[in-house]
Amino acid sequence: MFIDRARQHHHESKMIRTYLTERNDVLRVVYFPKGSPEFNAVEECWRQGKYDLLVSKYYPRFTDLKKAIAEYYRTKRFNLDIVKYLLRSL
Description:
two-stranded parallel sheet; 2 strands; about 90 residues; mainly alpha; 2 domains; 4 helices; about 50% helix; extended
């Protein structure tokens, strides 16, 4: 499993440590290098969302922004070729 270094992904939680320990024969955690968003395809989705949702847009209320974000990520299809994405920097 490849994950970024977000705090919620660390093994500090007892529940997460237990889960990973019980499955260490079939599941191995590999962290993306620090400061390397180019390896994490989710970062590309966040980048596209930020552009699509925030550039030249105005939301009169915070609830309008929340609704737009929820709708965007619920319905957007990114068509991201993960192999091409990960190999683009080689």
